[in-house]
């Protein structure tokens, strides 16, 4: 594997979702998502109210 994706980063980045400075998470299309938000996305069921707003944010990642 070589690439920017992974769970441990060498430097802290601002999370695309919560805007906190974290060094653990994933990078999607050059946007950093911290581990907490990534889990939130994974664990939010499609029936959940928040799912739509989360999905809208995620769509922005791929829209570029
Ligand atoms: Zn976050």
TrEMBL record:
Protein name: Inhibitor of sigma-G Gin
Domain of life: Bacteria
InterPro entries (alphabetical): Sigma-G_inhibitor_Gin
Organism: Alkaliphilus serpentinus
């Amino acid at each position: 594997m070589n690439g920017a994706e992974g769970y441990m980063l060498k430097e802290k980045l601002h999370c695309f979702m919560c805007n906190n400075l974290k060094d653990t998470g994933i990078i999607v299309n050059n946007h950093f998502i911290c581990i907490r938000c990534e889990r939130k996305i994974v664990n939010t069921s499609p029936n959940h109210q928040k799912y739509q707003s989360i999905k809208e944010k995620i769509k922005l990642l791929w829209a570029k």
